[in-house]
């Protein structure tokens, strides 16, 4: 179980966002209540002193080999559940993630694709065939 030192602002911020995200994901909260929730969790963590053990664990950074092997011509393998998808965006949205947050969470490069290469190529060919974007 990882240990966090709450004197570190970055770790306190990470814990605050993790706790609030977990709460909002599992409980109904009005949008206007979220800032108060963030403030109360942050102040509670600020009030604690010394290292704190927590079950919140950052996923490990992916090696370049893992990143390369997750991109196949016909699909992208999700680091969330290990399944293959032609388009990752819908899968990420079902887990409350954006492409940017997914890349950050798993230590992926900024140019990591969200669409499988062959799928993208097929869509491009189709769009060109129907003269999409031409006047």
TrEMBL record:
Pfam families named in the record: ROS_MUCR (PF05443)
Biological process (GO) annotations held by this record are: regulation of DNA-templated transcription
Alphabetized GO MF terms? DNA binding; zinc ion binding
Q: Which domain of life is it from?
A: Bacteria
Which InterPro entries does the entry link to? ROS/MUCR_sf, ROS_MUCR
Q: Which Gene3D superfamilies match?
A: ROS/MUCR transcriptional regulator protein
- Report the sequence similarity comment from the record: Belongs to the ros/MucR family.
Protein name (Swiss-Prot/TrEMBL): Transcriptional regulatory protein ros
The source organism is Methylobacterium dankookense
Lineage, top ranks = Bacteria, Pseudomonadati, Pseudomonadota, Alphaproteobacteria, Hyphomicrobiales
Q: Which gene encodes it?
A: ros_9
């Amino acid at each position: 179980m990882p240990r966090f030192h709450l004197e570190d602002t970055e770790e306190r911020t990470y814990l605050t966002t993790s706790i609030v995200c977990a709460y909002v994901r599992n409980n109904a909260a009005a949008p206007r209540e979220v800032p108060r929730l963030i403030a109360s969790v942050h102040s509670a963590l600020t009030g604690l002193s010394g290292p704190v053990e927590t079950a919140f664990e950052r996923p490990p950074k992916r090696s370049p080999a893992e990143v390369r092997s997750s991109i196949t011509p016909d699909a992208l393998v999700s680091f969330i559940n290990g399944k293959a998808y032609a388009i990752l965006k819908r899968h990420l949205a079902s887990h409350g993630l954006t492409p940017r947050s997914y890349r950050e969470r798993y230590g992926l490069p900024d140019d990591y694709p969200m669409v499988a290469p062959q799928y993208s190529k097929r869509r491009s060919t189709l769009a060109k065939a129907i003269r999409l974007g031409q006047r």
